[in-house]
Amino acid sequence: MICVCDTPFDPGHELKAFENKADAAGAIVSFLGRVRPEANDDPVKALHLEHFPGVTQKSIEAFAVQACQRWPITQHLIIHRVGMLAPGEPIVFVCVGAAHRREAFEAADFLMDYLKTKAIFWKKEIRDSGARWVEPRGQDHVDTQRWSSK
Amino acid sequence: MARLLFFGKLADLAGGRERDLPLPDTVDTVDAVIELLASEDELLGAALNEKSVRCIINERIDNTPGIVSDSDEIAFLPAVSGG
After folding, report:
1. Residues B77, A91: C-beta atoms closer than 8 Å
2. Using one digit for the tens of pLDDT, what is the confidence trace for A50-94?
3. Per-residue pLDDT tens for A19-62?
4. Looking at beta carbons, which residues of chain A come within 8 Å of B5?
5. Which sequence spans correspond to the domains of chain A?
6. CA separation for the pair B25, B36 (Å, rounded)
7. Residue B8 with chain A: CB contacts under 8 Å
8. A2-130 sits in which CATH class?
9. Chain B within 8 Å of A58 (Cβ-Cβ)?
10. Which helix (H) or strand (E) holds B19?
11. Contact call for A115 and B5, based on CB within 8 A
């Protein structure tokens, strides 16, 4: 399931619901990304996330299909926030269920690399010193590149 | 009348997320639309010409040809970043 949502979510609640549905999974890997309280020693007051309504969801679905074709995963869940978020708030939650741990770890890693560099979102950090649009770091692109060479 | 959409920093530069623009017959490619916008706003034109900017026409993520018509929705997307 994929959800681009504009209201806060509870990762603990979502993980429990995922576990209840993932009967066939011997392994479940989850990842939670949260708003960092500071960037380069500059306190972050808020993070504003934009999306392209409808199109962002479709693009994530297309990429989740690739993950399902690449690894024998039994279930997946991707929740991504949009709107104004406070430091510490969950931004993204990815859960992958599989028969064994390796495919669950790899598929979750793959999905997160995609979400960081290719999913259609834009992030603006609101700091004490002003606001700035955030682009992926060089390392994020290097991480995503790993999957095309495998 | 083409509907233009701007996201992220491009919306800041364009002064909003949406704009309706009548396309003259001679403007039938994305590059020509950018040229038209650049003739009115140099800063926006320069930002739209950045390599990282992607264009999605009529919400088709699988197929983004450079040809446009006056009834299209043309979305300009700067470098993306989620997670």
Report:
1. no
2. 999 999 999 999 999 999 999 999 999 999 999 999 999 999 999
3. 999 988 999 999 999 999 987 788 999 999 999 999 999 999 99
4. 52
5. 2-130
6. 12
7. 50, 122, 124, 133
8. alpha beta
9. yes
10. strand B18-21
11. no
Q: In chain B, what are the domains?
A: 2-77 (3.10.20.30)
Here the tokens at position A75 are 């279930």
The ipTM value here is 0.91
Confidence of residue B64 (pLDDT cuts 50, 70, 90): low
CA distances from A31 to A108, A129, B32 (A): 7, 30, 43
Residues of B in contact with A54 (CB under 8 A): 59
**pLDDT tens digits, residue range B24-55?**
999 999 999 999 999 999 999 999 999 999 99
- Smallest CA–CA separation between A64 and chain B, in Å? 15
The burial class, CB within 10 Å (0-12 / 13-18 / 19+), for A15 is: middle
A129 Cα distance to chain centroid: 27
Which residue type occupies A129? Answer: S
